[in-house]
Design a protein that fits this description.
With 130 residues, the chain is mostly beta strands. Helix content is 9%, strand content 36%. The strands form three sheets. Strands 4, 5, 6 and 7 form a four-stranded antiparallel sheet that branches. Strands 1-8 form a two-stranded parallel sheet. Strands 2-3 form a two-stranded antiparallel sheet. Strand 2 and strand 3 form a beta hairpin. It starts with 6 loop residues before the first strand and ends with a strand.
Length: 130
C-alpha cells in the first residue's frame, strides 16, 4: 500500500529574500481554480448536483490573514450545476472554504498512526517549490 500523499501543484519561486531564507510563491490558483481534493464538493456531490464547471467570475478570495507561522485563506467557490439542492432557478451552488497553511517545524514531528477510534478523516497535501 502506498501512503505517499498526492502532489497537488508545484510552484515557481517568484522572489527570494536577500539571505535566501524567505521565498515568495503565488498560490492564488489553489483558491480560485477547481481542485477537487481541496474543495468541500465530493465526487458524489458533483454527480448528484451535475456540476458543469467552476464559474471564474463568481469565484474569489475573500480574505487572507498572515501570522508568524501560518497563513489563513477564506475563499468563495461558485459552480454552475444542472440540479442545485435549492433555489434551482439560479443553476449554481456557492460555498465558502477556509484553508490554513502552516510552516512545518525544522525538526520533523513523530509520525501519528491512523486510528479508527478517531472520529474524523484527515488529508495531507504537498506543495513543491521549483
Amino acid at each position: 500500500m502506498n501512503n505517499f500523499q498526492p502532489i497537488l501543484r508545484a510552484f515557481d519561486i517568484e522572489a527570494l529574500s536577500e539571505d535566501s531564507a524567505g521565498v515568495v510563491i503565488d498560490v492564488t490558483d489553489l483558491f480560485i481554480k477547481d481542485i477537487p481534493s481541496m474543495t468541500g464538493l465530493s465526487a458524489g456531490l458533483r454527480t448528484r448536483f451535475k456540476v458543469r464547471r467552476l464559474d471564474p467570475d463568481r469565484t474569489f478570495i475573500d480574505e487572507v490573514k498572515s501570522f508568524p507561522i501560518n497563513v489563513n485563506v477564506r475563499h468563495t467557490l461558485t459552480y454552475e450545476v444542472t440540479e442545485p439542492p435549492s433555489i434551482s432557478w439560479t443553476g449554481t451552488i456557492s460555498m465558502q472554504m477556509f484553508q490554513s497553511m502552516i510552516l512545518l517545524p525544522e525538526e520533523p514531528m513523530i509520525a501519528r498512526l491512523a486510528d479508527p477510534r478517531v472520529g474524523f478523516s484527515y488529508m495531507t497535501n504537498r506543495l513543491w517549490l521549483t
